[in-house]
Structure formats: C-alpha cells, structure tokens
Amino acid sequence: MVNRVEKLCLLSEMIAFAKCDKMIKSIEHKFLLGVAKQLHISREDFDYLIANPIDYTHLKSHSERIVQFHRLVLLMSIDGEINDKEIIKLHNFGLRMGLNHESINKVLYLMESFPNKMVPPDVLIDIFKVQYN
Questions:
Q1: What is d(CA 84, CA 24) in angstroms, rounded to the nearest whole number?
Q2: Mean pLDDT throughout 17-29?
Q3: CA dist., res. 80 & res. 31, Å (int)
Q4: Quick check: helix, strand or coil at residue 119?
C-alpha cells in the first residue's frame, strides 16, 4: 500500500486533472471527496490540496499505478462530458506513470463502447495485464 505522501500526491494529481477544464464540477468534487475518504485523507487535507497542489511522486507498484489510472478514467467520465483536452491529459498522465502506451490507447478506445464511457475495473486490469506479462 502507498504511504501518506503518496496518497496526498495521488489525490493532488486527481484534483489537477479535474481542474483541466478550469473548475471542479460538483459531481467531480463529490467523487474526489470519496477517493479522499477511501485513501484516509482528512477533509482539511483535501481542502488544502484544492488550493495548494503538491508535486507528483512516482508510484513504485505497477498495480497502484493502474488503480490510479482507473480513478482518472472514472473522474474524466463521471460528468458525462469528455473532451479532447481531457483525453490528451489522461494519456499523458498514464505515460508519466510509466504505463504502457498501447494499453493506455486501448483503454481510451474501449471507453466508447461502455455505458457512460466508464471502463469496468476488471476490463482495465486485463488490458494492462496483457502488456505487463
């Protein structure tokens, strides 16, 4: 499992992603609060990260990077509005995390075939497993 600093970095990265279109929508804010709760990050720390992003820390665990990528996919899809800027940013986040380029592209391509463009976790994991093995 990731440590506190890594958890804060993960959440900060998600907040930055949500701000991609200049503001965090209400549904995105609720989703981010849920992730904060899941990561055991206090509301005070969450509010601090909204105003004061922290630098990215590379996750050592490949599985944790996949989980984070999935969170970003869900965050991007949650408001029902996906634009090219968000797709490019998600792709770049995935590459920066050290995820396989082909797997990222496959996830982004398959998003179109799922309701609300939300890729189920098992499908996403299978896509990355193929490239990881």
A1: 17
A2: 87
A3: 13
A4: coil
Q: Is 40 left (phi over 0), alpha (psi -120 to 50) or beta?
A: left
Q: How far is CA 21 from CA 15, 17, 87, 120, in A?
A: 11, 8, 12, 24
- Alpha-carbon distance values, 104 to 37, 42, 54, 85 (Å): 27, 31, 24, 15
pTM over 0.85? The answer is no
For the cut 80, the answer to whether the pLDDT of residue 121 exceeds it is yes
Query: Cα-atom radius of gyration of the chain, to the nearest Å?
Result: 14
- DSSP assignment of 29-97 equals HHHHHHHHHHTT--HHHHHHHHHS-------S-HHHHHHHHHHHHHHHHTTS---HHHHHHHHHHHHHT
| pLDDT score, position 86 | 86
Task: Give the pLDDT of residue 64.
Answer: 87
Q: Taking 70 as the threshold, does the pLDDT of residue 109 lie above it?
A: yes
pLDDT (0 to 100) of residue 133: 55
Q: Residue 47 carries which side chain, given as an amino acid letter?
A: D
Q: Spell out a b/e string for 10-26, using b for 16 or more CB atoms within 10 Å of the CB, else e.
A: bbbbbbebbebeeebee
